[in-house]
Q: What sequence folds into this?
């Protein structure tokens, strides 16, 4: 949803103290790993370092009863990563919850957006 030239919206996070088990960034990372077959490539696509991408994957893998991502070490043919069946299920359920939440709050979001102050325009 847009308000003027600003993007407005809600962000869903599933929290298991003290960690965020999954939120929008981690879901996007899982999508990238599924698409590219690589933690490093998925992180690069999101503008994050390999170390940060690995840290997020490790956090997700420890928040759930089993790993969401399996990684293979590099070698002559290179490494890779893939979502496990649980990873696919968690990502699917998270995206479904996002869509349900957006639908549930749509009218209130429109009302809030109409009450926002218009951003100042830059002078040229």
A:
């Amino acid at each position: 949803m847009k308000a003027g030239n600003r993007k407005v919206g809600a962000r869903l996070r599933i929290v298991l103290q003290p960690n965020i088990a999954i939120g929008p960034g981690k879901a996007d990372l899982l999508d990238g790993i599924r698409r590219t077959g690589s933690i490093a490539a998925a992180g690069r696509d999101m503008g994050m370092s390999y170390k940060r991408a690995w840290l997020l994957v490790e956090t997700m893998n420890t928040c759930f009863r089993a790993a969401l991502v399996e990684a293979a070490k590099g070698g002559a043919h290179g490494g890779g990563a893939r979502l496990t069946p649980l990873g696919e299920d968690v990502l699917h359920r998270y995206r479904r919850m996002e869509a349900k939440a957006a639908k549930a709050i749509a009218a209130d979001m429109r009302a809030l957006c109409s009450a926002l102050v218009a951003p100042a325009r830059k002078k040229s």
